[in-house]
Amino acid sequence: MLRVLSTHLFLNQRLHPGLLDLAEHAGAQAVEIFAARQHFDYTSREHVMELSEWFRSHSLQAFSMHAPMFSDREMGRGGAPGVNLLHPDKARRIDAMDEIKRALESAEHIPLRHLVLHLGERTDQWSPRSIEYALTALEHLGAFAHPLGVRLLVENILSEPTTPEHLMLILQMGHLDGVGVCLDLGHAHIAAGIAEAVGILGDRIASVHVHDNHGVKDEHLWPGDGTIDWPATAMALKALANPPALVLEIAHSPDDTLAAIPARMEQAFAHFA
C-alpha cells in the first residue's frame, strides 16, 4: 500500500518545498496536499508554480489533494461559511463548486491524481434533496476534473449523507463508476465501525485517511494514541482486491517536532506491514 503523508500535519504554516523535502526524507512515497489557503494558496500562481517545480525534480508523488473546506485563510474562524456542496441555498452550492474548481486548476501544473471531497458538512441531513445535490456536484466536478487527469474520491465524514451506506447509494444511483471513496478511519471509528465501513465500501476504497481517536471526538491522533484496533483494521484493508493508499492525516501537536516526525511516520505505517 502506498505510503502517503497529508500536509494536514503542517496546516498551521505555509506549504513550502522544505516541508515536501521532510516528507520525502521521512519515508513517504507521496503526499496529499490539504487545500487551505493559509497553507496552500491554490489561487496564487506563484505558490502553485513553486510546488510544481519541486515535484518535477523529485520522486515524491502528488497523490491527491484534499478539497477546500473554507474559502478564507482562517478555516472559518473569522465567520466565512464552509464550502458546502449540499447547502439548501443554490448560490452557496455554486460558490462551493467554484471554490473547489479553483483548487483543482492547480492540477494543470502539479501532477495530482485524486481529489478528496466532502459532500456537505457535519450538520447536513439525509434527504432526496441531498442525493440530488450530491449527484449534481459529482457530475459537474467530475467533468471538470477528468481532462486534468484527476479522479474524484468522496470521503465519509460525520454526517448523515456520508455514511458508507449513503455514499454507496449516491454512487450507484448516479452510475458514477469512476468515482472512488476515501475511507476516513477516524470517522468510521466514531460512527458504525471500521470493519462495517470496509465491508460496505469494498473495492470503491482508493485511499484511506489514517489517524486515531478515542471513539468520541475527531482528534486526528497518531495511530496507537487512541482506541482503534489497528491489527484488525490492517487485516480488513489487506483483504481488499486493490490495496488502497494509506494517507496519514494527523493534526499538528506542539509535541511533534520536525525531528520526531520520521520516527512517528515509521511507527504509523508499521501497523500495516
Fold topology:
Blueprint: E1 3-6, H1 17-25, E2 30-34, H2 45-56, E3 61-66, H3 90-104, E4 114-117, H4 128-145, E5 151-155, H5 164-173, E6 180-184, H6 185-190, H7 194-201, E7 205-210, H8 230-238, E8 245-248, H9 261-270
**Structurally, how many domains make up the residues?**
1
What is the helix fraction of residues, given as a range?
Answer: 25-40%
CATH-derived topology: TIM Barrel
CATH superfamily: Divalent-metal-dependent TIM barrel enzymes
Please give a structural write-up.
By secondary structure, this protein is of the alpha/beta class. The model has no long low-confidence stretch (mean pLDDT 96). The relative contact order is 0.13. Helices cover 36% and strands 14% of the residues. The chain has nine helices and eight strands. The protein has one domain: TIM Barrel, CATH 3.20.20.150. Strands 1-2-3-4-5-6-7-8 form an eight-stranded parallel beta barrel, surrounded by four helices. Helix 3 runs parallel beside helix 4 and helix 5 packs parallel to helix 7.
